[in-house]
Amino acid sequence: xxxxxxxxxxxxxxxxxxxxxxxxxxxxxxxxxxxxxxxxxxxxxxxxxxxxxxxxxxxxxxxxxxxxxxxxxxxxxxxxxxxxxxxxxxxxxxxxxxxxxxxxxxxxxxxxxxxxxxxxxxxxxxxxxxxxxxxxxxxxxxxxxxxxxxxxxxxxxxxxxxxxxxxxxxxxxxxxxxxxxxxxxxxxxxxxxxxxxxxxxxxxxxxxxxxxxxxxxxxxxxxxxxxxxxxxxxxxxxxxxxxxxxxxxxxxxxxxxxxxxxxxxxxxxxxxxxxxxxxxxxxxxxxxxxxxxxxxxxxxxxxxxxxxxxxxxxxxxxxxxxxxxxxxxxxxxxxxxxxxxxxxxxxxxxxxxxxxxxxxxxxxxxxxxxxxxxxxxxxxxxxxxxxxxxxxxxxxxxxxxxxxxxxxxxxxx
Length: 413
What we know:
There is one protein chain. The protein is of the alpha/beta class. It has 2 domains: 43-264, no CATH class; 273-401, GMP Synthetase, Chain A, domain 3, CATH 3.30.300. It contains 13 helices and 13 strands. The protein has helices at residues 2-36, 43-46, 75-79, 103-110, 127-132, 135-143, 160-164, 174-188, 198-203, 259-268, 329-356, 364-369, 374-380; strands at 49-59, 66-73, 90-97, 114-116, 122-126, 152-156, 211-218, 240-249, 252-258, 274-281, 284-302, 305-321, 390-401. The strands form 2 sheets. Strands 1, 2, 3, 4, 5, 6, 7, 8 and 9 form a 9-stranded mixed sheet that branches. Helix 10 packs across helix 11. The model is unreliable at 27-42 (pLDDT under 50).
């Protein structure tokens, strides 16, 4: 009996020893492999790279040559700004070439380091280039094995040289500043969608669906191109701000949306996270925040005509209430009614405006194309049947947050 126990313990020890040896062998192999790796952030390598974080592209109208501005990160300035005054966080290089593919070779003539595009945060295209068509740019971009699929694309109607030669306040890297602007605005104002990337434009290249990209402009009369900018208190001057949306059909820009229209475009697309609305109730202003709106969409036929039914529901937060009367249940019902009516009117106005301009902003033609049934087949044979689609819109909301006070302070009368 004792011999059997000692034999079992011996076998367990041998098995445990083998497992430990196997485990140690794996650790050693991993260590050897790690020693052989040379990551791109190695100090020796980073000193050989020109790390790009923003690029701008324009088309020279007279010669039809391509112009590119590369913003290259200054690693020393980004790593330590307090050593000896403020250093430039980026340097902007301008190159010009007969074709978009030759821009890289021209950049190599003036860059003392190898261009490293993997860290691009954003890309800016001029309106005149966008209206000519971005097919050469998009085809070249898609051929790159190291392209970034989440790169945000902006269209500007300001001179590109001014846009690329200015320092934005607060955020030192302009490309990252623009990226943060998109993500912050989508989460706080609803005036832009996070689906504003190059990949989102490419996905609609071969369809009838229109794409809307954010537009930006330079505020102020001139760019602020020296680090003295960081010593100025006026942050509005020389800043990059959103100004609306650029409407694309395939690869070509065909029009613009105003910034105030963008709210309802993003809402109808079902991509809104939040939006604001100011309504008038009893002759006084009430500011509301709509949070996490839910949008249910359905396309069907009534008496042979296509109908796009949209049901919007959302929760409301009262941010500001200038009414003199108390906030009762009856008064809250008035606020809700005013909000629902106004959102319905403004959203319908945007839809009707897009129909008049023959802008299929919501992909109705594509939706009709893939519908099944006899009635749909009749519509599919008609040219521009999507343009006759009627909007049937309903808006429902409820107030879930009234703030810290129920009734406003009235002061002396």
